[in-house]
Write a structure and sequence with these properties.
The protein has 203 residues and is an alpha/beta fold. It has a domain of 142 residues: Rossmann fold. 37% of the residues lie in helices and 18% in strands. It is built from six helices and seven strands, in the order βαβαββαβαββαα. Strands 4-3-2-1-5-6-7 form a seven-stranded mixed sheet, sandwiched between helices. α3 packs parallel to α4 and α4 crosses α6. It is globular and about 40 Å long.
Length: 203
């Protein structure tokens, strides 16, 4: 069954109409939604799902305290050996959602490292990730790590380096190896896709 990992940037507090249309389609098809508990995009999506009385939701929280579970949905608390409230502490939750999901829907502000890494976590497992680029008001559908590096090539060098370093670190911890497609493609183009071209499969 299709399980949708929905995530996004903490700077995104409002959802644009294209995202709401996508969420409505998920609701109509009854897909399970896996979502985090952070402020920003997580909270905004939770508010919308609550307004639609959608119950097929599981909220993933780091440690014992859940920051946001607006619909009082099923809750999964993910433990971590990392220090409390550090990046690694929250990353364990994100990795679990990527592991459990079959596809991702990400709302990206064009600057968030965490959102890009969630896309990476999905693609490394050969799971598609649909990314809504808020500044450019467009959807991208990423199917492999080559497309992920293309997306990174359009980011500023500081963000790109931070994301790539973290991705390598996580990969080493999991004792896996990057495929050849992870090699950066600095001059590659990203392909925009229309919303009508993007679909979340029925099963």
């Amino acid at each position: 069954m299709t399980k949708v990992f929905i995530g996004g940037s903490r700077r995104v507090s409002r959802l644009s109409d294209p995202i709401l249309v996508r969420l409505d389609r998920i609701i109509e098809q009854g897909f399970p939604v896996l979502i985090g508990d952070a402020n920003g995009a997580d909270k905004a999506v939770q508010l919308y799902l609550k307004s639609k009385n959608y119950s097929n939701v599981e909220v993933f929280c780091s440690g014992r305290v859940c920051r946001n579970n607006i619909g009082n949905w099923k809750q999964r608390n993910i433990s971590s050996t990392a220090d409390n409230k550090t990046y690694a502490f929250y990353a364990a939750k994100d990795q679990t959602m990527a592991d459990d999901a079959t596809i991702g829907l990400m709302v990206w502000d064009g600057k968030s490292k965490g959102t890009l890494l969630n896309v990476f976590r999905l693609l490394k497992q050969r799971k598609n990730a649909i990314v809504y680029n808020v500044p450019e008001k467009c959807f991208l559908e990423l199917r492999d790590l080559a497309q992920w590096t293309e997306l990174l090539s359009h980011c500023d060098s500081e963000l790109r380096n931070k994301v790539e370093q973290q991705a390598v670190l996580e990969d080493q911890k999991q004792n896996s190896l990057f495929p050849e497609s992870f090699k950066p493609h600095r001059n590659s183009r990203r392909a925009r896709v229309n919303d009508s071209d993007i679909h979340i499969p029925d099963s």
